[in-house]
Amino acid sequence: MQTTIVKWGNSQGIRLPKYLLESAHFSERDVVEISVVGEKIVIKKINVTMPHKTIQDRFKGYQDAYEPININWGEPEGNEIW
Predict the structure, then answer these.
(1) Sign of the CA dihedral 8, 13, 14, 18?
(2) Comparing C-alpha atoms, which of 5, 7, 25 is closest to residue 15?
(3) Inside any domain, residue 79
(4) Pairing with 64, which of 14, 44, 73, 77 sits 20 to 30 Å away (CA)?
């Protein structure tokens, strides 16, 4: 298969046909790694699992003290409900 490199914003890109992606078992939103090997561009799918983290997971190991503060955002300017 042949295709053409085209301008895409400030970059350049190519379109990959659906049948080509399906045959390589690539899907929309898959995370890929792109590398150059000699004069070849290699696109490799990365199996990334990003489980949802709880707030406790996100701050696990946090050692500093937390002091909540109130912020005065001023009076409403439009139809905000405070």
Answers:
(1) negative
(2) 5
(3) no
(4) 73
pLDDT tens column, 48-74:
776 778 888 888 888 888 888 999 988
Number of domains in the chain: 1
Contact 61, 53 (CB under 8 A): no
Domain that holds residue 44: 6-58
Q: What is the pTM of this model?
A: 0.52
End-to-end CA distance of the chain: 60
Rounded alpha-carbon distances, angstroms, from residue 34 to 31, 40, 43, 61, 62 = 10, 10, 5, 34, 35
